[in-house]
Amino acid sequence: MGASQSARGIRVLMVVMVALCLAPDTRVRATPPPVVFTPAITTTLGPIVPTNMATAIATGDFDGDGKVDLAVTNGASTTIRILLGGGNGAFTTIGPIIPVGNSPVAIATGDFDKDGKTDLVVVNNLSNSITILRGAGNGSFSEAAGSPIPVGTGPDGVAVGDFNGDGILDLAVANFGSSTVSILIGGVNGSFPTSTPVSVGSGPAAIVTGYFNGDQMQDLAVANFSSNSVSILTGNGNGGFSVTSQTVTGGPISLVVGKFDGNATQDLAVALQSNGTVTILLGAGDGTFAPAPAPPATVGTNPVSVAAEDFNGDGISDLVVANSGSDNVSVLLGNSNGSLTTASGSPFASGAHPRFVTTADLIGNGKPAFIVANDTSNTVSAYLNQSALAATTLALTTVASVAPGLPFALTVTARDVFGSVVTGYQGTVQFSGGGAGAVMPGPYTFTNADHGVHTFSGVSLTALGNQTITATDTITGTITGSATVYVVPQVATQLSLAAPVSSQAGATFSFTVTARDGGGRTVTGYTGTVQFASSDPQATLPSLSTFTAADLGVHTFTGTLRSAGSRTITATALGTPTITGSATVGVTGPSITTLSPTTGPAAGGTLVTITGTGLLNATSVTFGGVQATIVGTPTDTTVICRSPLNQPPSTVNVVVTTSSGTATRPGYIFLPVTVPAPPSRSGTGGGNGGGGPAPSPTSRT
C-alpha cells in the first residue's frame, strides 16, 4: 500500500484548537510538572463488524445538561452516533444512528444557524461532501436544508471559524484528493451558499485555525501528507487567503495549534506518520514558523492524530498522540523552550487501532481529560486527569500602589511546588496585615468553581507607605503568601464645590468644598486653608477657613449672593492658587414675604415693616407707584419705611427696588380718614335766636 493510500486509510479530523493566550514564560523545565491519568474508561459503540469503525470525535453539550457529550463518526458506513456524557467519563449511546454521507471521517461543532444550540458538520470522504446537522438542544439532530454540500475530492478534515468577520461561522475543508481547501462562507440560517477552492500542498490530511501573524484575522494551517509540507493560509478578513508552504518531512498527517515556548505567539505541533514522531514549529508571530531547536519527539507506531492541552497547569501546551499502529496513546509534556518530555505512564494502552484523539474536561474538575476513538474495536476510551499536586503556596496579585481608603481587588492563586495552579484547591484562607484601618476580606473557602483562583474586591488600606497583605491556609500554615502595596500619600490638586443650582437673592444657602487629587479622589487628609471669592460683589462668603483632620477632606459652608443672574463661588487654597475650584449658582431677584401692618390711613406716614429676601440694597419703596420714605438701613430680610402722605383710600401694590431687581407685594390698604362728629347741645332757645346759649336770668326787685 502506497503512502497516499495509507494516509487515506487513516483520515483524521483536526477541529479548531486555538491555544490559550498566556503571558510569556521564561522558565525552562528539565522535568515538567507530572500528570496522572486513570486507566481507560471504555464505551462500546456497537458490535465489531466491518461496517462499524469509530474514526473521529466532536465534543459538546448536546442536551444542555452541562456535561460533555460526544458525536462519533462511523467511517466505514454512512452514519454518526451521539453519546451522552454522564459526567464521570462514561457515555451512553442514545437514539438511532444518524445518517450522513458515505465514509464520514471528520466532524466538528458550531452554532451555524445562531439559535444557541450546538450543530455538527460531518465530512463525507467518499461522497465528496459535507453534511450539516442542526442540533435540537436535547441530543437529537436533523439534516439542515441544502445539505449535503459538495466540496473537493476526498475531503479529510474540517476547521470552523469566522473568516470574513461577519459573526457567522464559516468552514474550511481539506480535500486530500484534489489538494485543495474549500472555503465555505456561512450565510443566514446555517446555510453555506458560497464555496471557493484554495490550492495547497499535495494530499492535505488535516486543517486547523489560528492567529499566526498578529492581525487578528483568522488564519489556517494544513498538513500536506503527500508533499511532506505544511501550508499556512493567511486570512485577509474577507474570506480570502494567501498561501505559503514549508517542508516538513516524515508524512505530516495531523497538526494542532499550541504554545510550546511560553511566549505570546501561536506554534504548531505536527504528527509525522512515517517517522513515528511529533515535531514542533515555533511561530514568529508574522505568519512564519521555524522548527524548534529540540529534535522531534518519538511516539508510537503510525501516529495519526494529535491534540494539545495544558494537562499539568504549568501554562505550556502539552500533547496527546493517537498511535494507530501500536494501539496506544502517547502523552508529551511541554517545556518552555519547544521541547517535549514523555509523561510518566506514557504510552497509555488504547483500544484496537486508535484513529483520533481530542480533549475535554469530562468530570468538571478543571483538569482536561483525553478521549480516543478506536476504529477496529469500535470503542471510545476516556482517560481522566487525576493529577493532584498539593498546594504549597498562595500567590497574591494586586495593585502596586493605591490611595488611602480607595477600594481595590486582590487575587489569591493556589500553586504547587512547580508554580502551577492547583485547580482542585479547596482550602480556607484568612487574611492579615495591611496596617491600621485596613479593610480585609473575611475567611474564604475555595470551591471547585474557583479552580484554584479567587478574586476578592473591596480591599482598602489607610496607613501610608508599604503595607503587606498576607493570606494563609487556616489548616496548613505553611501554605501562605504575601503581597506588598504602597499606600501613596494623597496630594490635593483641586477643590470641587457642590452648591445649589439656584438661590434667591439675599437667601443664605449651604455649599460643600471637597479636596481632591489628580484622579478625582477625596483627599481625606487635607488640612489646607481655603479662601473664597465670588463674581457677585455683594456676596457674603466665609472668611479664611482651615480644614481639620475631622473633615476628612470635605467641609460644608454657608454663603449669600445678592446680585441676580449667574454667579460663581470660587474656593482657592491659600498660598497655592492652582488648587482651586468653583461652582455656579443662578441668583434670582429680591422677594417680599410680609407687610406689617397691611393697612394705614390714607393720610400716610404709617411705619411699615417689609420682610423678605435680597432687600439689603433697597433703593426705593413705592405704594401704588408713590414713593415712600425708607427709614434706617435695609437688611437682607427687612426694609422699614413710612407710607406716602395724602393717598386716596385704595388697595395698592408695594414695590421694593434693589440693585438686583424688584419685588412686589399686593394688598396694602389705605383707609379713608374719619371726621369726628360735633358735640350734642341741651335746652331750647327764645328770643336769643341763633340757638345760642340762653343768658343767665337776672334777679329784679
Mind sketching the topology for me?
Blueprint: H1 3-9, E1 41-44, E2 54-60, E3 69-74, E4 79-85, E5 91-93, E6 98-99, E7 104-110, E8 119-124, E9 129-135, E10 141-143, E11 149-150, E12 155-161, E13 170-175, E14 180-185, E15 194-199, E16 204-210, E17 219-224, E18 229-235, E19 241-247, E20 252-258, E21 267-272, E22 277-283, E23 289-291, E24 297-298, E25 303-309, E26 318-323, E27 328-334, E28 340-342, E29 348-349, E30 354-360, E31 369-374, E32 379-383, E33 393-398, E34 401-402, E35 408-415, E36 428-433, E37 444-445, E38 453-459, E39 465-473, E40 480-487, E41 494-498, E42 502-504, E43 508-516, E44 529-534, E45 545-546, E46 554-560, E47 565-573, E48 576-588, E49 591-596, E50 599-601, E51 607-613, E52 620-623, E53 626-627, E54 629-631, E55 638-642, E56 650-658, E57 661-671
Parallel strand pairs: 34-40, 42-48, 50-57
Antiparallel strand pairs: 1-32, 2-3, 3-4, 4-5, 4-6, 7-8, 8-9, 9-10, 9-11, 12-13, 13-14, 14-15, 16-17, 17-18, 18-19, 20-21, 21-22, 22-23, 22-24, 25-26, 26-27, 27-28, 27-29, 30-31, 31-32, 33-35, 35-38, 36-37, 36-39, 39-40, 41-43, 43-46, 44-45, 44-47, 47-48, 49-51, 51-55, 52-53, 52-56, 54-55, ...
Protein model, in words:
This protein is elongated. Mean pLDDT is 88; it is low at 1-30 and 683-701. It is mostly beta strands and 701 residues long. It contains one helix and 57 strands. Strands 2, 3, 4, 5 and 6 form a five-stranded antiparallel beta sheet that branches. Strands 7, 8, 9, 10 and 11 form a five-stranded antiparallel beta sheet that branches. The chain starts with a helix and ends in a 30-residue tail after the last strand.
